[in-house]
Amino acid sequence: MFKETACLSLGELKAYHKGKLNGVALRRVEQHLIDCPLCDGALEGINSSLNPVQDQIQLRKLGKATRTSNRPLPVFFNKAVAVLLIFIIATAFLTYWQQTKGERIFAEFYTTPVYEGSLQRGSAEAAINAPIKQKAIIAFGQKDYAQAVDLLEAHISDQANDFEAIFYAGISQLEERNIEKAIQYLQKTRLNDGDQYEGATWYLALAYVRQKEYEKASLLAEEIKMSSDPIYRMKAVALLEKMGNKYQ
Amino acid sequence: MSLRWLKPKKRFAKLSDEQLLTAFQETGEEQYFFALFERYTHQIYYNCKQYLSNEEDCKDMVMTIIEKSYEQLPDTKIDYFKSWLFSVIRNHCISHIRSYRRAASKTEAWKKNQEVEEAFFPIYAGNEKEAQLSSAQIQAALQALEENQRRCIYLFYFENKSYREIMTLTGFSAKNVKSYLQNGKRQLKRSLLVYQQNKS
Fold first, then answer.
1. CB contact at 8 A, A35 and B116
2. Do B113 and A75 touch (CB under 8 A)?
3. For the whole model, what pTM was predicted?
4. CA-to-CA distance for A102 and A164, rounded, in angstroms?
5. Which of A68, A102, B132, B169 is deepest in the core (most CB within 10 A)?
6. A237 contact B CB<8A
């Protein structure tokens, strides 16, 4: 008589409310209702409900809501999320820092060379002998590197051994971020033009830096360190220091 | 963020309310809390319906009760969960009705329920033999009941009649039959408890 029984399921309560139970099931429900105000109250609620369909919808919503409501999360969960966020942010920052290293070093060391070559801008002789190259040099001086590239390449197609033009074509491509092309032109100049050797090697090293090929850049910088030009030697030492001891 | 993975697992089905409660209080893990409350969502909802006629109020009240319980449970000493839950539902609903002064169509419900809370505390907890009460003492306790209560108790427990059959035999309403049974059984418990205490 005083034995405690399990609470009634929603199905049992509804079946009892509809008068569908008999025998043992009916006995269990009625015995339990005497002892359990919680279930008795629930049955009263069902009896007084005007819209059972609406109740069912509400109960389903409540079932979902109690599993996804904005209740406070346990401390360990919050801590785990915080640690994870810090880790993600730190990793993202490190990745970004590494990815932009080449650009940062490049920006620190790169300065656009001023044309000091055989052609003086605007001279009558230049206009007659090399009109395209002269236009290209004017475009280069005006920082119109796209135009300079077009004109210099047109000029080089006629005069393949004009390494001065090839050097400036390399610089213009470097300015235009066409690194592969820039490397080709600067490499060609470096190997063929003794007068442009230090300049071409220096800008080639910077092109490799921009391409994040630090090992190649450091080998070129080591070469420049041995050059007779003290300014390039200083620059090369500074570049090697900046890239890190690993490449010195 | 979806917390579907927190859905209570079936393996909790074998744990009692008190075991789930203790597990939640000791570990703070939500899964125990939800496993416990999922058992009583419909009871909470329909109990709220007893007090609150407005559908939205009812839904909000269930959420409030669950959220408040989540906050209170870790620091609350609870001997019998169902009894505690019943009190929480009742107190929140009454407090809500009072604070909003909305027409409560079923104010009788809480008056009745104020008396029945103690019915949750089973004196023998399913082991009648331990009580070791004589049939004379049980008979005496039955005789001490009010006439209508004794009649309903007798028909229900000794004649195995259903509520409907008792209604037919006695002419009482369904509400009265249940009331006589609940109050009679509670009175019987009290009397038997007194006998038991005197004996020990």
1. no
2. no
3. 0.51
4. 27
5. A102
6. no
